[in-house]
# Entry
Amino acid sequence: MQASADWILKNKVAYPSEMAKTLSADIGDPFSNGKVLFWPANGPFGTQAGRIKDRFKWGLTQLPEGPDGKPVVQQFSDQPHMVTKTAELRGSVEAVVDLLLFMFGKEVQGRIAIDRGSVVERKDVAASPELAAAPPENHGVFKSYLGVASATQPQFLHPAWFEWYSTMGLGGTSEVLLGKVTVEQGIADMKAKGDKVLAANMDRYKELKAFTAALKQKPV
# Structure
């Protein structure tokens, strides 16, 4: 958070969220409009490529995570391919499987590597020259994100996840990034707000834990 505050308040190479609309103009986002040094993104980058076109060169790099200075190397695709119970009820399982195999095949996944409208799901495509090609420069490093087995995942299933995230994450950083409070005070405030949301939803969380535990039990 200190780095983020410095980028905005000291180095003047980033911006608080309140300025996003002004800096975006009619391009779509501040980075594509050439108004900031970098753009934090979790991929893919097809949107930025379409907005920037050939107006300037840009590249993909790894930002350090926390005080250890190690790069953030994790990424996953949240677009699963699955067959639901509805397909069985409607008698369309075979057709659904054929569609899923097509969507997961090299033709579609190879097109994704070029257009970058979503994250590829095949290792051979992730290692392809099409995925490594610019723009952005150094796009091949994206493959390293996909290969990390220990990548952490957001806890989306928590019944109050979005409320917690909005309070402690997105909402909690504004005061710091606008220079109204110190980083230390901002972190303390965020923790307090986050803990309050989690405590208020503890019963809902316990219900979810009991439900998932029951799913793991073997049928009698």
